[in-house]
Amino acid sequence: LTDNLLIMPTSICASVLLMHRKGISDEELTKQVGYLIEVLKARNAHLPSFCQEAKNCVKKGTFHLNETVSKKKDIFEPRVVPKVDYKNILLLSYYRNNLVHLFISEAIITCSLFGFGHHHAWQKGVTKEELWEKVLFISNLLRNEFVLTTNFKTVEDYERTLKFMTENGTIAENEDGHIILGSEAENHVNYLNSCLLYTSPSPRDLSTSRMPSSA
């Protein structure tokens, strides 16, 4: 079912909006949606014709999310009354979850790296073996949350995901040959973490982070 799931504008827009609880401009939302569309295409996601172009995707997505998102001038933000009503955040998360399966393997790896601490994730690094133990642990915790054909059932699945993340710059090797997060990948890493984490407890504040405007 997930292999044939059509990724709708609501899912794409909700993914970006959840990273910007304090609001995001129309222009910036369009840029980040455009970036996310390119990332989805690189993962062979199924996108409808009206999701091929960022402006149209934002127009369609925000129209259908109008009850959960407010717009003041040109700023979009989740419609939430603090400590009173978080149902709109939950609804946005529901829409966002329709594309999480495309990033879950990468997200498990980035979250596992942060499990060793900020310094290890960005500078000191960890060995493949150390990271595999953490990845396997988190993957097993989530085994009842995601039904996937490849969810680190074998070391080969793990190696394949590492190769893909190395090629797109999400992770790299330091001078000691240990795995670290890519120096230019902070925004993408924040996005991956947001796919798994409801709040935004990564070492860097997701609420002010920005995804690159281009792939």
Question: Care to give the gist of this entry?
Answer:
This protein has 9 helices and 5 strands; from the N terminus they run H-E-H-H-E-E-H-H-H-H-H-E-E-H. With 215 residues, the protein is mainly alpha-helical.
Question: Which SSEs are present, and which pair or pack?
Answer:
Layout: H1 9-17, E1 24-25, H2 26-42, H3 54-64, E2 69-72, E3 75-78, H4 87-96, H5 104-114, H6 118-124, H7 128-141, H8 155-167, E4 171-173, E5 179-181, H9 186-196
Antiparallel strand pairs: 1-3, 2-3, 4-5
Record keyword descriptors for this entry:
215 residues, 48% helix, mainly alpha, 9 helices
Polypeptide structure, described:
There is one protein chain. Residues 199-210 have low confidence and may be disordered. The chain has 9 helices and 5 strands, in the order H-E-H-H-E-E-H-H-H-H-H-E-E-H. The relative contact order is 0.16. Helix 1 crosses helix 2, helix 1 (9-17) packs across helix 3 and helix 2 (26-42) packs across helix 3. The chain is mostly helical and 215 residues long. Strands 1-3-2 form a 3-stranded antiparallel sheet. The chain has a two-stranded antiparallel ribbon with strand order 4-5.
Low-confidence stretches: 199-210
Report the order of strands and helices: HEHHEEHHHHHEEH
Mean pLDDT: 84
Proportion of residues in helical segments: 40-55%
Termini separation: 28 Å
Number of helices: 9
Strand tally: 5
Radius of gyration: 17 Å
For the biggest β-sheet, the strand order reads 1-3-2
- Beta-strand percent range: 5-15%
Major sheet = 3 strands, antiparallel
- General shape: globular
Look at the helices and sheets and give the structural class: mainly alpha
